[in-house]
Amino acid sequence: MKVANRLCTILILSVMLVWLAMPVDSVFADGHSQHGAVSSSGSNDTAEQVLYVGSLLLVALGSYYFIIRIRGNKEYMSVMTGMMAAMATAMAGGLVAGTVLGIMLATMMLSSVIGILIGLVIGFLAGRPLGALAVMDGILSGVMGGMMGAMLGVMVIGDHPVIMVLFMDAVYIIILIALYNMLRSDVRHALTLSSQPERTRIHD
Q1: Measured between alpha carbons, how far is 116 from 13 in angstroms, rounded to an integer?
Q2: Dihedral of CA 68/73/74/78: which sign?
Q3: 192 lies in a domain?
């Protein structure tokens, strides 16, 4: 758990450094200048590819961390919390991965298939420790996130795709922080109740 937490922290900081290091003209260039004309320098394209790969790694490590966290604390989670955790992990991961793949592959069919599969796998692994209901919730949310992300990615190829990826990364990190706080609060509440004497809990 601590190793996964450190890896996620390192990756988030690395992605933020990539954001800061990206050339300004690469961030604010629209799709016509990026895809319709010959680039004057390969540095912009390299920075974009690093950003896209970093976003996919962010999804991979973020999903891995919460899958491990859900599995390790499943006995302290309510059914609703578990379903919400599986849904949020799969939906957010599929959405970001689908968006990045749609931009990188520039094809609706292939990016949709891969994005849906990524969301499906994340949802299945996140919901599996909590039962069939959480599995179905995670799978359906992952499929929806991957499909919508792929459509979004293909649509923004000609309209500032780098800004969209940066925005989706920021939204993903915010969702992870909110999910982490929710799980921590639920687990702490369960531990507090389990540490109280049985007589006190019945009286309450």
Answers
A1: 27
A2: negative
A3: no
Per-residue pLDDT of the chain (204 residues), as tens digits, is: 555 555 556 555 655 555 555 554 554 555 544 444 444 445 567 888 888 998 999 999 999 999 999 998 888 888 888 899 999 999 999 999 999 999 999 899 999 999 999 999 999 999 998 888 999 999 999 999 999 999 999 999 988 899 999 999 999 999 999 999 988 888 887 777 776 655 444 444
200 lies in a domain? Answer: no
Number of separate domains in the chain: 1
Task: Read off the tokens for 28.
Answer: 């604010």
Q: Is residue 98 part of a domain?
A: yes
| Residues making up the chain, counted from first to last | 204
Please tell me the chain's helix, strand, coil percentages from 3-state DSSP, rounded to the nearest 5: 90, 0, 10
Instruction: Give the contacts of 32 (CB within 8 A, at least 6 positions apart).
Output: 158
Contact 56, 100 (CB under 8 A): yes
Is residue 193 a part of any domain in this protein? no
Beta strands, E only, 27-170: none
Domain ranges, residue 117: 2-187
Please provide residue 6's backbone torsions phi and psi, each rounded to the nearest 5 degrees.
Answer: -65, -40
Select from 185, 162, 85 the least CA-distant residue to 126. Answer: 85
Of 198, 193, 93, nearest to 138 (Cα)?
Answer: 93
pTM, whole model, 2 decimals?
0.76
